[in-house]
Amino acid sequence: MIQKERYFPWSKLIVILLVIFLAGSIYGVISLNFEVSNYTHMNLSSSAIFNNNILVIISLLVIGTLTSGFYTIFVLFVNGMIVGKTLFSVYLTSGFLPILTGFLPHAIPELLSIFISSSISVIPFYLFAINKKELHLSKIYKEIFVMLILSFALCGLGALVEGIVSTH
Predict the structure, then answer these.
(1) Cα 58–42–50 angle (5° rounding)?
(2) Is 44 left (phi over 0), alpha (psi -120 to 50) or beta?
(3) Where are the transmembrane segments (predicted)?
(4) What pLDDT, on the 0 to 100 scale, is given for residue 81?
(5) CA pair distance 82, 93, nearest whole angstrom
(6) 38, 44, 74, 102: least surrounded by Cβ within 10 Å?
(7) In this predicted model, what pLDDT tens digit does every residue of 25-35 receive, in sequence order?
(8) Long-range pairs for 146-154: beta carbons < 8 A, 24 or more residues apart
């Protein structure tokens, strides 16, 4: 089987961004100091959730790309803090079941969507600071296009699951 060579190390970029998000989550849990926040669940439609997540993705793509990914790293760390703090508060007040039924079903595709779009925003840094290969713009554009489609599809799936499954 012939394996198609990728121009970017997508999985490595996504794992690095995941580690940044998890570091923020751990910091959020540590900074909680067992002071429980009141968590109120908002019932939103799948389309409202999708619109919000697409705006986040677009801001990560535009501002993140313009800042060579530094904005993206900051946003992922801060969002990780918020998620870590919120999940730990929910765990302390209600146990693990609401996390299992309310957060995890939509979080996997939604976060993967955000990590994929975030990896696109660090491409300028990768191209100019790390990459030692010759630049092939057509390959770069094709890979980015495929990753954008994948990111938007996962965003839609996450919003659908959150709007239907996670809210009930």
Answers:
(1) 25
(2) beta
(3) 12-34, 54-78, 90-108, 114-132, 144-165
(4) 94
(5) 17
(6) 38
(7) 999 989 877 66
(8) 147/10, 147/116, 147/117, 147/119, 147/120, 148/117, 148/120, 150/113, 150/116, 151/57, 151/113, 151/114, 151/116, 151/117, 151/120, 152/54, 152/57, 152/113, 153/113, 154/109, 154/110, 154/112, 154/113, 154/116
